[in-house]
Every structure is written in structure tokens, then in C-alpha cells.
Amino acid sequence: MENIEDLLQLQPIVTKQLQTIFEKNRVGHAYIFEGSKGTGTEELMLFFVQLILCENPRLNVPCETCRNCKRILSGNHPNLHQLYPDGQFIKVDAIDTLLSEMSKTGLEAGRKVYVIHSAERLNVKSANKLLKFLEEPEGNVTAIFLTENINAIIPTIRSRCQHIKFRDIPRNLLIEKLTESGITQSMAATVSMLTHNVEEAFALAKDESFAQARKTVLKLVEATFKNVHEAMLIIHEDWLPQFKEKEQVEIALDLMLFAFRDIVSIKANSEVMCTYPDTLSVFKDAALRTSFNTLSTQLQAILTARRQLKSNMNKTLMMEQLILNLQEVKSFV
After folding, report:
1. Which of 2, 61, 183, 212 sits CB 3.0–4.6 Å from 205 for a disulfide?
2. 207-328 belongs to which CATH class?
3. 131 Cβ partners below 8 Å, 6+ apart?
4. What is the pTM of this model?
5. pLDDT for residue 154
């Protein structure tokens, strides 16, 4: 388990919420922890289970040294049962086994806890099988359902659980996690603008095609501050051959939008955290030579192109028009 300081930094509201539940002795019979991967759902689940089973909690934090805490961390506590999907679904047989374990009289005294991982994978039969036990648990029992999407859990289970919503991981923490895994600061800063999911961000950062897309976008942005002919050449020689699918163009336009937002942010505050820290000197120069009104109009031009893309406008015509629009409004201060 991460220490309390890390949990408070990652999920301050949820951590405090769980501590308050424990402090006021209001531990319920069922919870749904909803959050995307990397947001701390499993870490906070372990924290909560440790807290309610700990022999010596202090200031609403588990001691981590008592017998119960150690057994929870090692996965050997007889009152804690965790269930994972087997393939695509959580099957009825697995629920039967879980309920059999939960009803055994040989378990230790105190609260029993069962955790359903990827609870959205409960099929209708397994969910209905679990529902009766959820409504009428035998003894002092708490259920925790972990999911990325609460709406994928059947309504009869949702309505019987307290919903604990996890926020997206803060951008600075995501960048920190990525750089600790060997991703460059510049790439981490870029992918953290496209996703808050740690695994998705890491996969994107390691994708060579995304690295090339990023390079092409930055090449075009720099050209728009030079001359229209160079920008048009990049459109036909680099952009159009690389971004053939609608989804690829959409991401590329988003990356372009982030670049112009960087320039606006740098103009307002040179110390701001950028999407492209490796192009800081180029963007600072553009910020010095371009007015806020011009940058605002250029941002609107990119947003217009995004809307045109959704209306299935010809991609070549759309990009040529975008470059002309970016050039027409260019003025220097």
C-alpha cells in the first residue's frame, strides 16, 4: 500500500471520505469504487480494508505492522476475499465459490470483506446470484466493487451500494509516473494532455507512430509562423500522407491546438507547464512576435477545422483552408 501522504496527493477527497466513514463508525455493507486505471482504486481499497480490520489504527490510518495489516498485504487474511474476472466475465461458479467461502463458520471474528475486481464484467446470472447475498449478508460483511464504469454494473447492484467516485490522476502526478518509467519529460507532458490513464499514456508515449505525429505537428506549427508556402509544402509532403484516417487527423488537430495554447500560455506566463516543453524557445519567440488577438483567432481557426472534420469535409481542402486562415490573421506586435 502507498503511504497516506501519497494517497492524499493522488485522491485527497476519497481518502478523507474513507477516513471519515471509519472515524464515525459508519462502515457500510457495500461500496462501488469507480475510477480509471491509475487513479488509485486498488490502493485505496487496500487502505480501507486495512483500516477497518487493523488492530491498532492511529489517526484514521492503519498501523501496517499488526498481524491483520500484514496478512492483508500478503493476501492471506481469511476475512478478505478478492474475486477477479476469468476471461471476459465473472462467472456464476466463481460467485458460488466466493459465497461458500464467505459463509464458512471457521473464519475469524470481525468484519468480512469481499472485493469484486472489474465488477462491470459480472454477467447477469453471476450478478443476480450475488444480489441475494448483497441484500442479506450473513453477519458483519462489506462488499467493495471496483470498476472503471459504474453504468456497466446492473442497476439492482448499483442501487444497493455507496458510490465512491475517483477523480482523474492530476497531470503533474501522471507526468511524474511516466518519467519514473523512463519516458522523457517532453513526451510525458504531451501524452498527459491526451489521456489521464497511466497505462494508456505509457503506451502512447512508447508508440513510434505517435512520436512521428507529434514531430509532424510541431514542424507544421513552426512553419505557420514563417510563410504559407513552407506550411503548404508540409501539408502535402508530411501531413496528408501520415494522417489518412479521420481519427488520426482529429488527434493531430488536437496536438496542433495544444501547441497554440502553449504559445498563448507562454505569452501570459513564461513559467507555465507546457504540452511541448522541448519547443519552449521556438514558442517563446512566437509569443513575443504575435498578439493575443491573433493567437485567439488562430485557435478559433483550428477549432473550426475540427468541426469541419466532423462534418466530413474533404481533408485536403480543410487543411489548405486552415493554413490560409492561420496566415491571414498573422500580425506581429
Report:
1. 183
2. mainly alpha
3. 156, 157, 160
4. 0.74
5. 92
